[in-house]
């Protein structure tokens, strides 16, 4: 747990570089009011391969609400927590499930085989989500997507060569516009990430 907490602190430092803007800095005593970082503008398009070998483009998903995350198939901590929030949100969507697509983009080009990706999906318990797609591409293509979404991904010697990357999720509306970036760190006292996902998805679906 101490190692995970240390890694979360390091991730928080990386997040301070993430170039999405808040209307005001978030303080700890604001945790109950926190709803995420509101975004604007078109979400950058991409075309990547999912875990089934099917090509998918963000632009093909117009009309759907997209929940977008960036994950490492070898991650054994932060990505597991993110997966739990995604799964919980999905389970509570009810009749809105068909209006939402969950995407995860690989942040570890060294672990990119279909076998590795499908193993991670099973370990994270995301195989039950029929509209979940883990997307992968060439290292150069992935780096372009990371850059377009201001996502950091780097190998950390401090953590034995593990990939340290920007956590959290982006929510994209039915017209392909960025609407929210949401991340709740370990020990957060406010609403959890699954609740915030549900709140924003329901707001866009209404």
Describe the structure using short key phrases.
206 residues, alpha+beta, six-stranded mixed beta sheet, two-stranded antiparallel ribbon, 5 helices, 10 strands, 30% helix, globular
Structure, explained:
The protein is an alpha+beta fold and 206 residues long. It is built from 5 helices and 10 strands; from the N terminus they run H-E-E-E-E-H-E-H-E-H-E-E-E-E-H. The strands form 3 sheets. The chain has a 6-stranded mixed β-sheet with strand order 1-10-9-4-5-6. Helix 2 (78-91) crosses helix 5 (193-205). The chain is globular.
Sheet with most strands: 6 strands, mixed
Kindly name the structural category: alpha+beta
Approximately what portion of the residues adopt beta-strand conformation?
Answer: 15-25%
Helix content: 25-40%
Order of helices and strands: HEEEEHEHEHEEEEH
Average pLDDT figure:
86
Low-confidence stretches: 1-29
Q: How many helical stretches?
A: 5
Structure summary, number of beta strands: 10
Overall geometric form: globular
User: In whole angstroms, how far apart are the ends?
Assistant: 40 Å
What is the CA-based Rg, rounded? 16 Å
Give the spatial strand order of the biggest sheet. 1-10-9-4-5-6
